[in-house]
Write a structure and sequence with these properties.
The protein is mainly α. Among the domains are: 109 residues, no CATH class; 48 residues, no CATH class. The protein is built from 6 helices and 2 strands, in the order αααααββα. It has a two-stranded antiparallel sheet with strand order 1-2. A hairpin with a 7-residue loop joins strand 1 and strand 2. It is elongated and about 130 Å long.
Length: 237
Amino acid sequence: MREGEHSAYRVPTGRPFLLGELYNKLPSVDDRMKHLPDPADPTEYEAIADALWDVFVTARNLAPVRSPTGCARHPGGPVDTEAPEGWGRCLLCNRNRRIGRPSVKKATNASTSLWAIPDPPYNHAALMAIRRTINHAVMELDYRSPDRAFHEVADLVHSAFIIARELSRPRSTGCQRHPGAPIDPTAAGGPQCIFCVGEERRRQLGPPTVTVRPSRPVPTVRPPVPRRWQQPLPPPM
């Protein structure tokens, strides 16, 4: 750039603050995901899902506003809730496509979210994989990054939130005696009802044995010795 000339690029308002907020929030939730056991309790995933949603709100605010249709020609147009597989969400554009392909059918599971939703299965390995992708994508961000980079980070964080939210749902063992009971993931033969596993272990081991330790003898309490106080003699004259 020549002396006296200025770049036409201007940093969007609020981007430095939001980018710093993203850099501050992500390491803590990343560290919590990194040290998650496998399998982990749903309550642990619930706390991570809440933290990921907070990060997603910041990433969403960094990205430019995404229209409901995602269409450059009709950004404010109606949304096609029965869009076929691989088509866009714009009803106006899809109507014209249906004229040429009248036999096309809607997708089995049409997405209604503005942000990315990953395909199942939702498990610990999928969460760890997307965690690494988020870290690489955020490291490449700076003030001059294109809009698509911020959209990509927001989609990745939203995908991680969806996985953590699904993992946080209460798990049922199907136990008729203890419906809704917690699960023992280390039980032999696979995860089972923790109450039934405890009862089975007590039957196998029998009642607990209590070892009675002999009590110590009571110490002898001696009566206090009376003290005799003598009055000091007067000094010699």
